[in-house]
Amino acid sequence: MESKNYGHHHPLLLLDEEQLINNQSGVADCSKCGEKVSAPCFSCAEYCEFYLHKVCAAAPLEINHPFHRDHPLVLMQKPPYSFGTYICDFCDKTCEKFFYHCPDLDFHIKCALFTFNIAENNLKELEHFVCQDPLVSTKNDDEELEEVRKCFGCWEPLANYTHISPYCGFNLHKKCAELPLELSNICHCQHPLVLQFNSERLSCKICKVTQKRGFVYGCSSCKLVFHIECLSPPLDLAIEDESHQHTFTRLLRRVPYICDACGIEGIYNAYICCTCNIMVHKRCTSLPRIIKSKWHDHCIFHKYFLRNDFKSSSCTICHDEVNPKHGSYSCSYCNIKFHLRCVTEEKGLYSVVSLENEYEISNGGLEILSDKSVESATCVFERNDAGEATKIKHFKHLHDLKLSPFVGGYENNCDGCMLPISEPFYYCLECVFFLHKVCAELPKVKHVWHHPCQQPLSLISNKAFCCGMCWHVSNAFAYECCKCETKICLRCMTAFTPGARTCLKHEHPLFFYRDYKGRCNACSLPTWAAFCCKDCNFVLHRGCFSLPITAHHKCDVHLLSLTDHDDNSYSESHYCDICEESRDPNCWFYHCAACDTSAHVGCVLGQYPFFKLGSIYEDKNHPHPLTIVNKIYYYPECDKCGKLCEDLALECSKSDCKYIIHWNCAASRSLQRWWEWLL
User: Fold this and answer.
1) 401-411 per-position pLDDT tens digit
2) CA-CA distance, 431 to 400, in Å (whole number)?
3) Is 543 helix (H, G, I), strand (E, B) or coil?
4) In what helix (H) or strand (E) does residue 19 lie, and over which residues does it extend?
5) Alpha helices per DSSP H over 386-462
6) 470 vs 206: CA distance, rounded Å
7) Of the candidates 41, 155, 479, 651, which lies 20 to 30 Å from 186 by C-alpha distance?
8) Nearest 5°: phi and psi at 222?
9) Order of strands, edge to edge, in the sheet holding 215-219?
10) Which residue spans within 568-615 are E strands per DSSP?
């Protein structure tokens, strides 16, 4: 390895600890690796704030690394990427300083040299660090911290095995620092397996999971890799599993099989329960029996086999079929099921539930009698013969609500989501208040898969907000994050609830796909995530999915209906009766059949279609309560800007006070609509 100092033209002085303290004007960072310097280190003799770790100063220009024999690692000053940073393929941290680079890998200087020493079995620099024993149990307060700390070698939790103290700067199991460079294993008898970086991002031949960073054992000739943990023989051939009542025993023969716990194919390291006649992956021997997932309101059970009485054979997340002969998670209360791989794919979206804290279990041990994890927003006073609640009290309304069947007409809007009433709903006998049945049944507190915070969201009302998903401003019901205070409207909340969704403009149920490339049937624009029909090629954006089925506008005395096709082939009729601009006949529009009025969706709905008009708004710049109004025919001048109030405005509730102001003049920037409709 050729060694050379570069990146600085002045002489460098070697400093001990006392000299470093006297030489620093503050905390100094190494000019190569960007980390805080410690003695012994080099400093510029001309006092130009240039410091180098001794290791970094001696860093060679090129390394032929035993863990990566395809290319040499070349020392570079700046990343060759447009965004100016890189992520180290060993420690997973971002940096923009000097680094070692090849076409497949990037490493911090210290990480490249550290792993080189591991490969050369030169571990003298770790001898003075104390090794810590694996943790038997972890307090709740430390769970998040322990989850973050992973071994840089195998990327398993650091606390699982004896490990080097993380204060040395490298999270590493002692066993991973002492791995042999080559080994022979029954999993691949043809060639020796070589310890290496997974530069080609291959999935493990045993568990089928791709580990992008750290070490793997691989065979370059056969293009396959094995995780360190998957190859490691267990301390005991029998595994006691808290989620299964019997002991799993390792099968010492290499046989292909389908795992009875997750339904995924396995080739090596099968574990069997002779009592239950099941065969599983090693990782599936410790599956949690009960979890609380952000994909569902109730807790869900893991079962090895399912009955055929579920209302759908599809996974609630990916919508592909769930084989009842293999393991999966399910909710018997809602009669739905999930692929194990889908519901446990992201660790931040679920948590393990203790049996005694969250539910009461029947004698059979698999059915939920009561789920204490969901708090209802209503109190039921009366039910009909079918068990349906007919009289309730919602905690966000003063009076009792009665259930009414939908009998046609769309004149009223739901006070929860602000969409037209179009299904069985609850109404108040004492005031003008309506709630869709589905909106009334939403819980007080809800975990959702589409919000990154771990904290739940709480139901709020009568507060102006901008939805964090659709960006519409409203003052109806919403869910607010207890941590970041992000609000999500009920339209988005119900639309993104997993399962089949109903669209009045399509005959089949729609399912949301997080990754779907196509074109929206409503606006003809490309989609990246969309609501799709499994029976035909019908696709909707999430914004188009929640469009009101009817809407009022001063251009017509009747209600305008959302229309998905234009029967008139005469091109001159394809224009908007509001803005008088041309209209794409292939896009959805609002139409009145009686008056032959047609208009763009955006022109009809305006800037703020989801505000509850007539509600009270408090403004610190005016002494009286203000009423939210939408002026249609009479346009007074705004008291702030002097322009006519032609859209949403705030009007003083005192009859003798003529104060009025545009909503955009009174509200903060975050509560103003700044984007345009796509239709």
Assistant:
1) 999 876 555 57
2) 10
3) helix
4) helix 17-23
5) 437-440
6) 42
7) 155
8) -100, 0
9) 182-185, 188-197, 215-219, 224-227
10) 589-592, 597-599
What is the mean pLDDT of the segment spanning 476-497? Answer: 89
Task: Quickly state the pLDDT bin for 537 (edges 50, 70, 90).
Answer: confident
The arithmetic mean of pLDDT across residues 333-362, rounded, is 75
Please tell me the predicted confidence (pLDDT) of residue 309. Answer: 64
Cα–Cα distance between 149 and 140 in angstroms, integer? 15
| Six token digits for residue 129 | 């660090």
Q: What's the DSSP call for residue 187?
A: T
Amino acid at 537: N
Beta-bridge mates of residue 597: 592
Q: Count other C-beta atoms under 10 Å from residue 85's C-beta.
A: 13
pLDDT at 205: 83
Report how far apart the first and last C-alpha atoms of the chain are (Å, whole number).
63
C-alpha 316/C-alpha 512 separation (Å) is: 10
- 144 pLDDT band, cuts 50/70/90, is very low
User: b/e string for 193-203 if b means 16 or more Cβ within 10 A?
Assistant: bbbbbbbeeee
Q: Which residue has the higher pLDDT, 276 or 242?
A: 276
Which helix (DSSP H) or strand (DSSP E) does residue 199 occupy? none
User: Confidence class of residue 21 from pLDDT cuts 50, 70 and 90?
Assistant: low
Amino acid identity, position 639: D
What torsion, rounded to 10 degrees, do the Cα atoms 201, 207, 209, 212 define? -40
Give the whole-number percent of the chain exceeding pLDDT 90.
Answer: 6
pLDDT class of 478 with cuts at 50, 70, 90: very high
CB 630 within 8 A of CB 663: no
Q: Let me know: does 237 contact 253? Beta carbons within 8 Å.
A: no
Closest CA to 439 of 397, 389, 486, 494: 494
Q: What gap in Å lies between CA 87 and CA 94, rounded to an integer? A: 4
Dihedral sign for Cα atoms in the order 345, 346, 349, 350: positive
- Both tokens assigned to 163: 């490990």
Tell me: cis bond preceding 40? Omega within 30 of 0 counts: yes
At 540-553, the pLDDT tens digits run 988 888 888 888 88
Per-residue three-class SS string for 615-651: CEECCCCCCCCEEEEECCCCCCECCCCCCECCCEEEE
Q: Is the pLDDT of residue 37 over 80?
A: no
DSSP 8-state symbol, 443: -
Half-sphere exposure of 535 (CA within 13 A, CB side): 6
For 107, other C-beta atoms within 10 Å of its C-beta total 26
Helical (H) or strand (E) element with 520? none
Question: CB of 520 within 8 A of CB of 527?
Answer: yes
Report whether 634 contacts 614 (CB < 8 A). no
